[in-house]
Amino acid sequence: AGAEVVHTAEIEADMDSIQDSEESRPSATISPPHKRSIECCSISESSARSGDRAVACCEDSFGLQPAKRMAMAPTVAPQVPRLWPPASVGPNAALEQQAALIRMLHSVGLHLDAVLSVEQLGMLLPLLPGGSLPSCLSALLHKHLLAMMPTAAQLRVVSSGRNNELTVDSLVRFFRLHLAGVPVEGRLMPCLSGGARSHVSADDLMTVVQQVIDHHSGLAFLRSEPQFRQRYAETVVVRIFYELDPLRCGKIFAAQLRRSQFLDVLLSLEREAHEGSESVNNERRYFSYEHFYVIFCHFCKLDEDRDQHLALEDLLRYGDHMLSRRICHRIISSRVSSTRPGLIDYVDFVWFILSEEDKTSRTATSYWFRLLDLDGDGEISTSEMEHFYHEQAERQRTLSQEAVAFRDALCQLLDAVHPRQQKGSITLSDLRRCKMCPLVVHTLCNLNKFLAGDMHEMHATRDSQSTKQLTEWDRWAVAEYCKLSLEDDDDDDDDHHHHHHPHQHTTTTTLTNIPPPSPSPTYYHHHTPTPTQHRGLYLCFNNCLCLSSTH
């Protein structure tokens, strides 16, 4: 405080001397004084007032006009525009939409006390005022509306007394409370959750996917295969959660759902179905049958004992033993879905294969970071990296190759990642910022891709430039799908050569005997198998369930 007072006194003394010198000079010969460097760093109220006087004296001595002083005043910053859509479009629009809904219901002959079936609700959802919703939400919404009806006045008993039916009045009330005046992107959450919850569960999405299977012509062959249909629906739900729930908390909240493309995907599927499309493979984000085919084939290849679970030795055989034993231990110990110790189930395997074959996504980066962070302190330390790389070096020596020293490998990783901490630890933000998750994982855990090195990166760069609309997962799935198709074609030729009867399948049926759709000559041609082509995979699925192939 004493230093501030002394410094303020010096400033006032300088300003007084400037004023005295200016007054003693003739007005015609006034010249600007020498510039003085004034540093005012006091934060006290008294020093602030003295600083204002000092600035005013400097302005007078330099001959600044009052208009120029006003120009130097700080301007008000413009208001930053909103970066997200408003929660509502206004009360007037909400009232107009409610009135439009009543007029639409009357035009189709539905009154408030009329019974509303699932099929009728599916026809009304695309026609809702203010923004259409996909009709595949009708079964789930019908279920929620039935559960929300508080009194028997909204129930209408069918004459046979078998069950209770929903009335149109329940839909009008739900529309008024949750949908009227809400933008279309905000309408998906109340329809999926019933308006009573702030999140969406896996059971909610399973109902929607099942209805997509029931109404899409490209999935008609699954309707007669209940067990295989359930596995496909499970894969689609896991892929949705993989993108929207990267932390695997089991819930999808409104903000995540609003930022996603899930609503656009559902609307595009219905649009393609109305246009007569016979394939769901154009939608590569969630519903692609080809992607499911590849995932399930790899799972069945590893599941030799057909118990629907993978042990450590099963997982080690993935990708021609590309992964180290230590990372496979971490994958199994970090399981979420499986309740059996030392095993992972199909859901955990889907998370693994999506993260392994496309490490550039945010979910994959988080997945591998949690596996490499052994102590869970939010950092991949040097000791943790050395723990995983030690096995990599041993495997290199086993292959009679000169092992890269850990110090050299560490320098390469730190140069590529550029961690913000000087101690050499890598955080999740560092890994996402540098986009070098593939390099880190391959160096520490994946021997095949680590040895491929620059050649693998060169092919990946070439593919990304030639097919920019595809992700790393899309490219890998297309290549694997064509490989499985070619392998199956070769096995079909062997079967014809040995004159095997088409129904003579033994319990040792392998996935190489499965006849998938014929491979495409183009890189991203999509084709859904017919029920006949689907027979081999279904027989293998039954084999996995310990069922007889003849059944």
Fold blueprint:
Elements: H1 2-24, H2 45-61, H3 66-71, H4 91-107, E1 115-116, H5 118-124, H6 138-148, E2 156-157, E3 164-167, H7 168-179, H8 188-193, E4 199-200, H9 202-215, H10 226-244, E5 252-253, H11 254-259, H12 262-274, H13 289-302, H14 312-316, H15 325-333, H16 346-357, H17 362-372, E6 379-380, H18 382-398, H19 406-417, E7 426-427, H20 428-434, H21 437-444, H22 447-452, H23 454-466, H24 472-497, H25 535-544
Antiparallel strand pairs: 1-3, 2-3, 4-5, 6-7
Helix pairs in contact: 1-2, 4-7, 9-10, 10-16, 13-24, 16-17
Structural summary, described in words:
The protein is 55% helix and 3% strand. With 551 residues, it is mainly α. The protein has a 3-stranded antiparallel sheet. It has a two-stranded antiparallel sheet with strand order 4-5. It has a two-stranded antiparallel ribbon with strand order 6-7. Strand 2 (156-157) and strand 3 (164-167) form a beta hairpin. Helix 1 (2-24) runs parallel beside helix 2, helix 4 runs antiparallel to helix 7 (168-179) and helix 13 crosses helix 24. The longest helix is centred in the last third of the chain and has 26 residues, at 472-497. The chain is elongated, with a radius of gyration of 34 Å. The relative contact order is 0.06. The model is unreliable at 3-9, 17-51, 53-72, 151-162 and 497-551 (pLDDT under 50).
